[in-house]
Design goal:
With 406 residues, the protein is an alpha/beta fold. It contains twelve helices and 13 strands. The strands form three sheets. It has a five-stranded mixed β-barrel. Helix 4 packs parallel to helix 8 and helix 5 runs parallel beside helix 6. The protein is elongated. The protein starts with 12 loop residues before the first helix and ends in a 7-residue tail after the last strand.
Length: 406
């Protein structure tokens, strides 16, 4: 709606700004495409500020969005990236400034591709496919190295020549496959699985030379990543140059910077190993010599002691002590024997004095009946009973006769 104005009846700036804001509010939310020329992400701030530029018309527009909206694409979007944003135009009346409040951001072209790869990367990482504890160690000297690479490629030549320079006896099982295009993923997966099933293969190298992000896409394919994660044989990824990081690098047991470095990582250098063996032998020899010298010094110190100069001194001193102890023992034992002999003689004399034989020797006799019992009372003996009388020397047979007094 046009305003009726004149030099005599102008419209205030504030009113014009207010009317512009009303017209912009009726525009509603729109999709906008442009290139990020400025990006401001203040630490701790909840809002991100961007400037979108249209190179065709040399026009710029201020864009604001919540940090959570931008964080979804922050890994693949930066200054210079082209994006498509969905937002509502807003007019800030006090300053007369137009901006776009964005609720969704989508990368365009390569940015969109990188965003999909980033989502896949996060999903696979959440499953634990990139965890360090899953990495298998490489063998020190592989018997057979599996190599998956393009036919007659520079990567194949670099790996084979570098490996044979380092260890001439190394053997390879080469599988030539497509390394870009629609056939690359199934062919690489088939080759990796074939080599993994061969028990003679100790390690597998997947190698490709450098290229654009699109050329290296097969090595970020989810099926290939899962196939490598399922391998029992250690897998080395050598894709492109050092800045290139396909998802295969993350799931492999070792990521090499280039195909040449893959050969160095897998195959030891015979010259370096021989030099290492020589150094270890020298260290072992020095260690043995030092140990021998230390033992010799200890033995010399021991032999220089007085006790080792006259080793019998200690024995002689102990001999005198042993002789004195034996002499004391003999004297003590003699005293004990003499005392015991005297006690035995006294005991024997007492026994003899108390013996019945001694009593018989003084003229007494013992009367016994036929059954051997001793006669103690005269009334126990019948008249005419035959008794045996034992005296000190021998025995007599007697017949009992009662006297007149009974």
């Amino acid at each position: 709606m046009a305003l009726n104005t004149s030099p005599e009846a102008p419209v205030p700036v504030g009113e014009v700004s207010r009317l512009i804001g009303g017209w912009i509010d009726r525009l509603g939310a729109v999709w906008v495409e442009g290139q990020i020329t400025q990006l401001s992400r203040r630490p701790g701030a909840g809002v991100v500020f961007l400037t979108l530029r249209d190179p065709s018309y040399d026009v710029s527009l201020t864009v604001t969005c919540y940090r959570a909206v931008f964080d979804k694409v922050a890994d693949v979007v930066g200054e210079g990236a082209r994006i498509v944003a969905y937002g509502k135009p807003e007019w800030y009346a006090p300053r007369g400034q137009l901006s776009l409040r964005v609720s969704e951001i989508r990368p365009v072209g390569m940015g969109e591709l990188l965003a999909r790869l980033e989502l896949l990367k996060k999903a696979l990482a959440a499953e634990g496919l990139f965890a360090a504890e899953r990495k298998k160690p490489l063998p020190f000297l592989p018997r057979l190295v599996g190599l998956v690479t393009g036919r007659a490629s520079a990567a194949e030549r670099d790996v084979l020549e570098t490996a044979r320079q380092r260890w001439p006896a190394v053997r390879f099982a080469v599988r030539n496959v497509a390394v870009q295009g629609v056939h690359a993923v199934p062919q690489v997966i088939a080759a990796v699985r074939e080599l993994d099933a061969d028990p003679a293969v100790d390690v597998i190298i997947v190698a490709r030379g450098g290229g654009s992000v699109e050329d290296l896409l097969p090595f970020s394919d989810e099926q290939l990543v899962r196939a490598v994660a399922d391998c029992v044989t250690p897998v080395v990824s050598a894709i492109g140059h050092e800045p290139d990081t396909p998802l295969l690098d993350l799931v492999a047991d070792l990521r090499s910077r280039t195909p040449t470095h893959a050969a160095k990582d897998v195959v030891p250098d015979v010259r370096e190993e021989l030099e290492r063996v020589r150094q270890l032998r020298e260290r072992a020899l020095r260690a043995v010599e030092v140990t021998l010298e230390r033992q010799e010094r200890g033995l010399a110190d021991t032999m220089s002691r007085p006790v080792m100069a006259r080793p019998y001194t200690m024995v002689e001193e102990r001999e005198e002590q042993v002789a004195a102890a034996l002499d004391r023992g003999r004297r003590t034992f003699g005293h004990l024997l003499a005392r015991a002999e005297a006690e035995l003689e006294h005991t024997a004399a007492r026994v003899v004095a108390l013996s019945p034989a001694a009593t018989l020797g003084r003229g007494y006799a013992v009367l016994q009946r036929a059954d051997g019992s001793a006669v103690r009372v005269a009334d126990e003996v019948a008249d005419g009973e035959r008794l045996r009388a034992r005296v000190a020397r021998g025995e007599l047979t007697v017949v009992a006769r009662r006297g007149e007094d009974g």
